[in-house]
Write a structure and sequence with these properties.
This protein has a domain of about 90 residues. It is globular. It has no helices and 19 strands. By secondary structure, it is mainly beta. A hairpin with a 3-residue loop joins β1 and β2. It has a 19-stranded antiparallel sheet, with no helix packed on it.
Length: about 325
């Protein structure tokens, strides 16, 4: 149940319960959002049979500055797995950031920058981890833009404290053009590599290309690579994943999509074809083929092949 308040704000109450012959599970939630032209403050409190969760967020977009904040607290016993999804258990986190924003300065349409700081603790950790961060994000008047974020902090994993720094750089071009390009680079100086089961540096790079060949045909290409370093600093592995995609409108109502994923990391390659037919408003027929091949031994042997037909029909009552 949700109730509107103060023109643009609301208050809601939710209760959900699942019962069977052996037990039951219920959760009661109360949430509210207060909005003005520049400010939004939202909060949510939930109580289950075994624990509780709290969430509060602040977003203040004033003409010349931005303030954002977040508080999260999930009790270690907060269990709603039969009803819904809770991202963490036993985690408390605080975060606050502030910075100026500028409009129509030289070639920039918007220009924002700022600093922030946060603390985080999981239930089994001996004390609080922390981080500080800064960012710089320009958007040009030609609709191109970019952003860069830098973090430095101290964290706890696998019964060990460690210090790290982390950086992310991204860019994008005008998505209204025939050819669109975007990408990002991410690097973390130190952390636990769960696949290799040791502490070391790691990073990823992504490049996205979209070409609107004509109003009916779009070609897309995504190139990703992952870099993993050994604890002594030598490069452990550089793996690549390619994702070419073709989207073609056979007619106003028939659409074809062809997607593939050559993967030099897992050597499990995928191929997918989807044909969709919009035969009436909000009603669709789908026919899909998905094939997976295993190249771990260099033989490209078939792993899975699935053909699916699906009908979605909207009834008007």
């Amino acid at each position: 149940m949700k109730i509107g308040m103060f023109k643009n704000s609301d208050l809601g109450i939710l209760y959900s319960e699942v019962r069977d012959e052996s037990n039951s599970q219920g959760v009661l939630g109360i949430d509210g959002t207060f909005r003005t032209r520049e400010l939004q403050l939202s909060s949510q409190i939930a109580r289950s049979d075994s624990g509780y969760a709290e969430l509060a967020k602040l977003d203040w977009y004033a003409p010349k500055f931005i303030v954002t904040g977040k508080y999260e607290n999930y009790d270690q016993n907060f269990d709603i797995e039969r009803i819904g999804y809770a991202p963490w258990k036993g985690v408390t986190e605080y975060y606050l950031s502030v910075g100026p924003q500028f409009f129509n300065i030289g070639p920039f349409y918007t220009l924002t920058t700022g600093v922030g700081s946060g603390r985080r603790k999981e239930a089994d950790e001996p004390s609080w981890g922390y981080w500080i961060n800064g960012w710089f994000s320009p958007e040009f008047k030609n609709n191109c833009g970019g952003s860069s974020y830098f973090y430095k902090g101290k964290s706890y994993e696998m019964n060990r404290w460690y210090e790290y720094y982390q950086t992310t750089i991204s860019f994008w071009s005008d998505n209204r053009k025939v050819f669109v390009i975007s990408g990002n680079v991410w690097y973390k100086s130190y952390g636990f590599n769960y696949r290799r089961e040791y502490f070391a540096s790691m990073g990823t790079n992504d490049l996205y290309l979209d070409w609107k060949v004509n109003p009916s045909l779009t070609l897309s290409f995504n190139l990703s690579n992952t870099l993993e370093w050994e604890p002594d600093g030598d490069l452990e592995e550089l793996s690549w994943v390619l994702r070419p995609t073709l989207q073609y409108a056979l007619s106003k109502d028939f659409h074809l999509r062809v997607y593939s994923e050559p993967n030099t990391d897992t050597h499990i390659h995928q191929f997918n074809v989807l044909l969709s037919y919009n035969f009436r408003p909000k009603s669709w027929f789908y026919l899909a083929l998905n094939e997976t091949r295993n190249n771990t031994e260099g033989k490209m042997s078939p792993k899975d092949r699935i053909i699916v037909a699906k009908l979605r029909y909207l009834f008007f009552l």
